[in-house]
Amino acid sequence: MDKPRVVLGVGGGIAAYKACEVLRGLTESGHDVRVVPTDAALNFVGAATFEALSGHPVHTGVFTEVPDVQHVRVGKDADLVMVVPATADLLARAAHGLADDLLTNTLLTARCPVAFFPAMHTEMWEHPATRDNVALLRARGLLVAEPDSGRLTGVDNGKGRLADPREIVDLARLLLAEPAALPRDLTGIRVAISAGGTREALDPVRYLGNRSSGKQGYALARVAAQRGADVTLIAAHTVALPQPAGVEVRHVSSARELGEAVHAASADADVVVMAAAVADFRPAERADHKIKKSDDQPDPTITLVRNPDILAELVKNRREGQIIVGFAAETGDEAGGVLEHARAKLKRKGCDLLVVNAVGDGKAFEVEDNGGWLLTAPALGGAERPIPLGSKSQLASAVWDAVSELTAH
Ligand code: CTP
Fold this sequence. Notes:
The chain is α/β, with parallel strands linked by helices. The protein has 2 domains: about 5-175, Flavin prenyltransferase-like (Rossmann fold), CATH 3.40.50; about 190-405, CoaB-like (Rossmann fold), CATH 3.40.50. It has helices spanning about 15-30, 45-55, 70-75, 90-95, 100-110, 120-125, 130-140, 165-175, 215-225, 255-265, 310-315, 340-350, 390-409, and strands at about 5-10, 30-35, 80-85, 115-120, 145, 150, 155-160, 190-195, 200, 205-210, 230-235, 245-250, 270-275, 280-285, 305, 325-330, 355-360, 370-375, 385-390. Strand 18 (about 370-375) and strand 19 (about 385-390) form a beta hairpin.
């Protein structure tokens, strides 16, 4: 199969150096990348770097390779065009259809998905001119990702930081898989998502935990934010993951802490998604000091007590119109298959949507791809949709498609 062809446009901002990481991530995951910088971008990163990393020549203007009609061909041949970083100037030129260099020509000739990843100072991002340009581009169906908050050039801090390069590569993969996957249909919707695995302390150094990586919850947060939602992510121990751009993250540890944070966030949330692996039990006692082995004492026995079922509590206290999404990790056994267990769980938990992952044998935990079913409560039509095996962002998209349908009614 031909490699997907990605055009990586690079704007003239200090974050241009991070485009090299995006380029690396894309080529290493099997994409053919053509870099099209602006002249200004070459003040930050030299053409030789882009040529060496992409394996293609790099031009900025329309007067090179003229017989090949490059200014039309580069855009027409692309499967995806990404602009990293998108400066305020580039967003303005794109919004108004200017075509004064190879990149802006490419943006006008592209018939594939186009995504902008802005980076600029907060004042520029918040300026009405930029807001209007972003709104115009989004209204035309282009993706303008939310920038991150944090350290900017110099001593400044605030919104306008380029999204994490790993996030950008992940979104590129999602856009190539499902070009229509990122509408702004969740604009104005507040969502709370739990992710990761809780830890129940036995003593100051030991705990009972589980193998959840948190990647699925983070993917749900990332995709919801890019579709316009206002997202709070409650993260219990995850592997090291980039912070999704535009998402407020609260870190917790135990099931009870997670419960408190989820209930607080759900008070004004339209949608709550319980993607975290919550420990059903915790040690009845937590030792203040490290538990020591001793030849004089019998070996310790751990007594477990039940943790609250947060999903069940959410369903019990749900606000009018609030949508609650649960996850079920099932292996199937002699009493029934994965789907039979899942249907029973949907009924028992009383949530509106249940995402069902088949687990075991390397499926779902600690892996990049996920698949399963999406079950809708009988009262809401009882649909049972298979989710084909794909990236965790693709599964997240399927969940938000279903939520979006429910919120539209
Ligand atoms: N969950 C929760 N609180 C718990 C345990 C689970 O909110 N104490 C949530 C999970 O986040 C998930 C859903 O409930 O969305 C299903 O979790 P799972 O562990 O599969 O379900 P259980 O009810 O524990 O069922 P069982 O262990 O019997 O399979």
